[in-house]
Amino acid sequence: MPRNEPTEVTEERDGGRTARRRKAVRYAVPVAVAGVTAATIGLVPAFAGSGSPDLPKISAQDLIAKIAKSDVQQLSGTVQVTTDLGLPALPGGAGAGAFGGGQGGDGAGAAASPQSKLTELASGTHTLRVAADGPDKQRVSIVGKSADYTLVHNGKDVWAYDSGSNSAVHHTAPKDARRGTHRGAPEGVPQGLQNATPQELAKEVLKAAGDTTSLTVGDTARVAGRDAYQLVIKPKQSASTVGSIRVAVDAANGVPLKFTLTPKSGGPAAVDVGYTRVDFARPAADTFAFTPPKGAKVVDGDRAAHGKGEGRKGLDGFGGLPGFKDHQGPKGAGGLEVLGKGWTSIAALKAPGGPGGKDQLAKGDAGKFLDSLGSKVSGGFGSGHVFSTRLVNALITDDGRVYVGAVDQQALIAAADAAKK
Q1: Of 175-189, 319-333, 388-402, which range is least confident?
Q2: Overall pTM > 0.70
Q3: Residue 300: how many CB atoms within 10 A of its CB?
Q4: Could you give the residue range(s) of every CATH 3.30.310 domain in the chain?
């Protein structure tokens, strides 16, 4: 059979095919990329397999439709996550708390809180074991060198367990909540952890694919022993810091097996997530059973959240980030506004405390971290500091405005200038 050659999807198609394409791309990249990067921060391995299999030729449009039509409900496997955003070590040993990712309360409860694990995925390589059986049963385990961390969703129960501290947090999934890895995260589980699979990352990216995006089909590949096509996604907007995204798609069932995001600056992937092993048979029922071990510290997550007047949505602590519109923003933060379109969308908000927000951010270890990274810039907006990673950049102005996006420095300055007019 002929090897697949790159085929670009354009808008110059008859009305019927364009309509079908729009329907297929009902998922649709830009703001979603910023959200996924900021919260999932980090995921995938090298291809688990070698060689380029011979597969029937397929267009980008039909490959997107294949992903959209895929309805795999049962699977189990191992996912390798590698992240390289170019984030330096926090000065003074500051940890998750510097980003507001920590949880109040005693150490045991904080160790088992799902959001405490998000910062661990911000760099390096991690191994996850995943399993799913429909919208009501999922299990994700982060495998550590000396301890494991596990999230289990089984019907109305959502458990998070940290074996290192022998502590657990329990939540009740509301009957009317969107549930499951394929339907959205159960309440009490940060979306970032639920998104730690190639399927969910690909879905978030395809939600934003539009006329600012080039979609082509690259060479075929072998991933986790499966034949796969590769969908290549590139921004058409030059100010984007994203070079390309490659999604390896199972040729048989349309399930994304690998997600690789490479910055425009080159070098290794910034976000790389993929299966090294996958099985589409139904997992054993006891995979989703969980009982806290004897002597474990158990926290009632529902009661703890309501006791703080936050509700379960406040547990994420990522409400102010693009892609997390379903969650509350940090207390004192101004309303989030999205500027621009496509890959160069920029999230704009007021720092806590308005014009004094920059001074608040400058306090403590978080302030030392920002000062060590920031470069002084000025423009029509006034002056401020730009803080950069390999993918996401942020401008904090001296009058307390924050601009964040997967865009270059000049795009942030231009957005701040425009907001002043």
Answers
A1: 319-333
A2: yes
A3: 14
A4: 335-421
Q: How confident is the model over 56-105, as pLDDT tens digits?
A: 999 999 999 999 899 999 999 999 999 998 875 544 433 333 333 333 34
Domain 335-421 grouped into CATH 1.10.10: no
The CATH number of 15-297, from 2.50.20.10, 3.40.50.170, 3.40.50.970, 3.40.630.30, is 2.50.20.10
* pLDDT at position 382 over 60: yes
79 burial (CB, 10 Å; 0-12 / 13-18 / 19+) is buried
The answer to whether the beta carbons of residues 132 and 114 sit under 8 Å apart is no
Residues 6+ apart with CB under 8 A from 402: 348, 349, 350, 351, 357, 394, 395, 396
Instruction: Give CA–CA dist 17/362, Å, rounded.
Output: 53
The answer to whether the CB of 349 falls within 8 A of the CB of 334 is yes
11 is written with which tokens? 């808008």
**In 226-327, alpha helices (H):** 301-307
- Region 18-47: what's the mean pLDDT? 37
State the span(s) of the chain assigned CATH 2.50.20.10: 15-297
